[in-house]
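Project outcomes to date are best conveyed with an example. Our students and postdoctoral researchers have been running inverse folding experiments weekly, and each run begins with a structure described purely in C-alpha cells. The record below, which covers 601 residues, was selected by the lab manager from last quarter's runs and is presented without edits.
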C-alpha cells in the first residue's frame, strides 16, 4: 500500500545531478522524507554522475506513486548560476584558439548538461513545477533543514558548484540567507584534490590523504600557510601561483599544481611509488593547514552572525579531522553535519529546499538517522537466497549470536534494514569485527578490503559510552568527527586506533538503529568493550552493497566468515551431504559440513 495519501500529500522530488559525480534522488511526501539514495548504489558505478534515473524510480516505488503524481521537482544545480563569471573564463589568461575551444566546450557542457536534465525532468513529471537551485544552496539546505536547529550559521565548502566553491549563510526558520560566497578558481576542495593527486592518489581519494596525514609531521606548515589562508572578504584565499585549477575544468592541460609546488615540496609521487616520510609530512602539513583555515572560517562566521549553532556541508566537510578541530577549538557543541555532506546529499538538500524554502514550512521533517535507502524483508531475502540455491539458517537471536561470533574472531558481513545515505557504512551495510586485536585490521584488509594498509578502520560505539573511550562528548552518528582515543583505552582497541591515537567513531543510539545498538550492547556484555570495528560492506573501488544479491556477490568473492542478512546467517561451508552420497572422493577440508548453528566461544 502506498504510504502517500492519494489527494492531500504534496510530493516533492529532490535531484542531485549535473555536478559531475554522486547523483541521486530524495522524495518528501506530506512533510515526511520517504526515500533518499545515491545513484551509485543502484547502478553499481562508483560516484555515478549520470542522470539519476534509477534513484528516481526507487523513490517513486518507495512512495507507491507514478511520475504524474509529483508536484514539485527541485534540482540542486542551476544552468543560470553565475553565468557572467563563467563567461569570464573565455577571456581569462591564455587566448590561444585551442584553449578557447576547450573553454567554450566546457561552458557548453556546463550549461546544456543541466538544461538537458531539466528537459528530461519535465517529460518525466508533466504535472510538476520544476526549480533549479544553486549547488551550494542545496548543500546548505541539506544541512540546515536536516538539523534540529531553528537558527544556525551555515558553512558549505566543496570543489566547485556552478561557479561558487563555498558559501556562508544564515538559516532561520524556513529560510536561508546567503552571507558570502567564494568562487572558482579559489577552492579549498580543489586545493585538497590537487595535493591528493600530487601525492599519487586519484579523484575522490581525499580521505586517503587525511588518513596518511596521521603518519607525518607538519614540517611544511609554513609553506602551506603561504599557499592558502582565511580571508574575511572572500572566505579564503588560495595562491594560484601554486594551484592550477584550470585543468580540472578541462580548460588547460596538465596537472592541478604548478611547478612552484614541485620546487617547494619536490617531485610528485606516482601511484606505483612507495609512500615515504616526505609524502606523509606533506599530507600532515596540508591537513594541519586545513584545520587552521577551517577553524578560522567557522569562528569568524559564528562571531559575525552571533549564532553558535553551526551547520557544515559540502565535500570538504567530510573531513572529520577539520570538523573535530572546529568543534574542539571553538568549543562549539551544536555542530550538525548530515551523513552525505558531499554531492551525494545534494538531492536531500534540494528536496528539503522545496519543502521549506519554496513551500514556506518551518517545521522540520525529523531527519534523525541515515537509513533512507533500499530495504528488504526477511521474505524477500529468503527468496533471493532460494534463487541462488544458498542454504541459510534463521537465527532466533541475531545480536546475541553475532556478538559471540565477533568475540570468536569472525569477520562478518552485516546487512540489515534500509541502506545508509552517504559514503559511510553506519550499521546497515557494514563489515564488522572485534576492534580489540591489532591483527584484525590486517585480517580485514588482507581478506576483504584489499585497501591501503595505512588507512584506519572505524569503531561503532554505543552512544552512552562514547565519552569514556574517546575525547568526544557530543554525538557523531555519521562518523564525521575524528577525536583522540582516551589514552588508557588505546591499548584495548588497537584495530580501530589510528597511528596518531585518533579514531573516527560512529555513535550508535538505541533509537536510530535498535538492532545494531543491541549487537554492540551484547558485545559489551561479553567483553566490557562497548564498540565494534565497522567498515563499509564492499571491496576496494566498488560502491557499498545495496541489495541482497550485491551482498552475496561480495560475501562469496572475499574472505568474510559469515553473512548476516535480516534474520538469516549464511556460511560458506553449507550443504554437501548429497555429494557425500555419490562421490567417495576426499572432502576438501572444511567444506563437508551441513550448515549448522555457528559455534562461537
Ligand atoms: Fe558539491
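After processing, the design step wrote out the following sequence:
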Amino acid at each position: 500500500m502506498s504510504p502517500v495519501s492519494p489527494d492531500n500529500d504534496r510530493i516533492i522530488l529532490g535531484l542531485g545531478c549535473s555536478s559531475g559525480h554522486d547523483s541521486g534522488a530524495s522524495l518528501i511526501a506530506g512533510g515526511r522524507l520517504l526515500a533518499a539514495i545515491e545513484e551509485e548504489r543502484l547502478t553499481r558505478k562508483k560516484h555515478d554522475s549520470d542522470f539519476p534515473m534509477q534513484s528516481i524510480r526507487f523513490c517513486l516505488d518507495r512512495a507507491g506513486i507514478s511520475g504524474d503524481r509529483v508536484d514539485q521537482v527541485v534540482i540542486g544545480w542551476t544552468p543560470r548560476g553565475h553565468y557572467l563569471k563563467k563567461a569570464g573564463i573565455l577571456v581569462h589568461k591564455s587566448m590561444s584558439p585551442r584553449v578557447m575551444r576547450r573553454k567554450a566546450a566546457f561552458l557548453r557542457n556546463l550549461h546544456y548538461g543541466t538544461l538537458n536534465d531539466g528537459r528530461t525532468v519535465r517529460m518525466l513529471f508533466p504535472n510538476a513545477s520544476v526549480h533549479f537551485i544553486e549547488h551550494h544552496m542545496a548543500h546548505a539546505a541539506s544541512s540546515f533543514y536536516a538539523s534540529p536547529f531553528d537558527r544556525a550559521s551555515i558553512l558549505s565548502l566543496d570543489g566547485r558548484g556552478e561557479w561558487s566553491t563555498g558559501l556562508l549563510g544564515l538559516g532561520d526558520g524556513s529560510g536561508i540567507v546567503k552571507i558570502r560566497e567564494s568562487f572558482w578558481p579559489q577552492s579549498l576542495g580543489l586545493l585538497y584534490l590537487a595535493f591528493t593527486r600530487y601525492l599519487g592518489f586519484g579523484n575522490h581519494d581525499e580521505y586517503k590523504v587525511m588518513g596518511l596525514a596521521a603518519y607525518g609531521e607538519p614540517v611544511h606548515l609554513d609553506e602551506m600557510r603561504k599557499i592558502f589562508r582565511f580571508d574575511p572578504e572572500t572566505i579564503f584565499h588560495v595562491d594560484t601561483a601554486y594551484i592550477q585549477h584550470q585543468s580540472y575544468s578541462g580548460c588547460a592541460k596538465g596537472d592541478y599544481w604548478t611547478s612552484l609546488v614541485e620546487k617547494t615540496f619536490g617531485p610528485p609521487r606516482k601511484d606505483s611509488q612507495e609512500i615515504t616520510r616526505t609524502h606523509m609530512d606533506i599530507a600532515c602539513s596540508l591537513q594541519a593547514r586545513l584545520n587552521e583555515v577551517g577553524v578560522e572560517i567557522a569562528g569568524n562566521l559564528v562571531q559575525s552572525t552571533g549564532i553558535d549553532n553551526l551547520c557544515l556541508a559540502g565535500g570538504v566537510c567530510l573531513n572529520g579531522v577539520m570538523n573535530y578541530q572546529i568543534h574542539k577549538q571553538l568549543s562549539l557543541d551544536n555542530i550538525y553535519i548530515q551523513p552525505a555532506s558531499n554531492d551525494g546529499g545534494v538531492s536531500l538538500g534540494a528536496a528539503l529546499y522545496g519543502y521549506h524554502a519554496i513551500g514556506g514550512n518551518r517545521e522540520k521533517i525529523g531527519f534523525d538517522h541515515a537509513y533512507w535507502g533500499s530495504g528488504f524483508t526477511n521474505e524477500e531475502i529468503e527468496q533471493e537466497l532460494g534463487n541462488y540455491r544458498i542454504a541459510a539458517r534463521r537465527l532466533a537471536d541475531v545480536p546475541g549470536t553475532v556478538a559471540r561470533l565477533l568475540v570468536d574472531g569472525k569477520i562478518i558481513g552485516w546487512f540489515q534494514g534500509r541502506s545508509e545515505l552517504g559514503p559511510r557504512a553506519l550499521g546497515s551495510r557494514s563489515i564488522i569485527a572485534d576492534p580489540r586485536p591489532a591483527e584484525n585490521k590486517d585480517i580485514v584488509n588482507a581478506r576483504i578490503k584489499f585497501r591501503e594498509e595505512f588507512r584506519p578502520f572505524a569503531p561503532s560505539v554505543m552512544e552512552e559510552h562514547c565519552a569514556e573511550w574517546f575525547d568526544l562528548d557530543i554525538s557523531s552518528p555519521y562518523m564525521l568527527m575524528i577525536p583522540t582515543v582516551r589514552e588508557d583505552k588505546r591499548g584495548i582497541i588497537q584495530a580501530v586506533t589510528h597511528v596518531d591515537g585518533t579514531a573516527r567513531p560512529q555513535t550508535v543510539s538505541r533509537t536510530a538503529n535498535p538492532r545494531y545498538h543491541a549487537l554492540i550492547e551484547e558485545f559489551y556484555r561479553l567483553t566490557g568493550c562497548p564498540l565494534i570495528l565497522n567498515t563499509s560492506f564492499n571491496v576496494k573501488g566498488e560502491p557499498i552493497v545495496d541489495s541482497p544479491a550485491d551482498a552475496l556477490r561480495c560475501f562469496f568473492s572475499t574472505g568474510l566468515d559469515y553473512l548476516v542478512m535480516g534474520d538469516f546467517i549464511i556460511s560458506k561451508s553449507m550443504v554437501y551431504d548429497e555429494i557425500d552420497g555419490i562421490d567417495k572422493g576426499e572432502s576438501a577440508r572444511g567444506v563437508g559440513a551441513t550448515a549448522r548453528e555457528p559455534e562461537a566461544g
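The two ends are 44 Å apart (CA to CA). The first strand starts at residue 11 and ends at 16. The training component of this project remains on track.
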